[in-house]
Amino acid sequence: MKHLSLLLALCTALAAQAAQTAPRDRIERGRYLVNTSGCADCHTPLKMGPHGPEPDAARRLAGHPEGLAMPPVPTLPAGPWLVISSATNTAWAGPWGVSFTANLTPDPETGLGRWSEQDFVQTLRTGRHLGRGRTLLPPMPAAYGQMTDADLKAMFAYLKTLPPIRNRVPAPLPPAPR
């Protein structure tokens, strides 16, 4: 009887581990989608390189740099202008206030490390943080909500394979009083 309960515990542990590990083809599909859908365009800060702005590879998909305190938002000129972006391309200001791109690495304290696959899918599907919180702000495209569950789950599986980067992104700021 003791061997049977030990065997049952081992099988349960192996099944749980297998459920947490995404198949390689799913991770590769996620890599393809993340890399072709422009995620790094906003979630990887730009830095000045020898030939101008370039993605900061050491902060890949880590969002707005924690230590970068942004000055007050400049006033937009009159006319059809709507948005201002930081030089890092990770802070955006407009009529909604100021938004900062999120840390998509699996850091458990500052990124997606504690998120479930369902949290990720619901966030992109509903346009709300964790599928139920505050509204996602520009420049986050609503188009990701039109992707299939399989594609969103593949993206999440890939993001979970990245090296975690501790980077606490600031909370959004409300619009300035008029």
Automatic annotation (TrEMBL):
Keywords assigned: Heme, Iron, Metal-binding, Signal
GO molecular function: electron transfer activity; heme binding; metal ion binding
Keyword Transmembrane listed: no
Domain Cytochrome c per the UniProt entry, residue ranges: 25-163
Keyword Cell inner membrane on entry: no
Signal peptide bounds: 1-18
Name of the protein in its database record: C-type cytochrome
Lineage: Bacteria, Pseudomonadati, Pseudomonadota, Betaproteobacteria, Burkholderiales
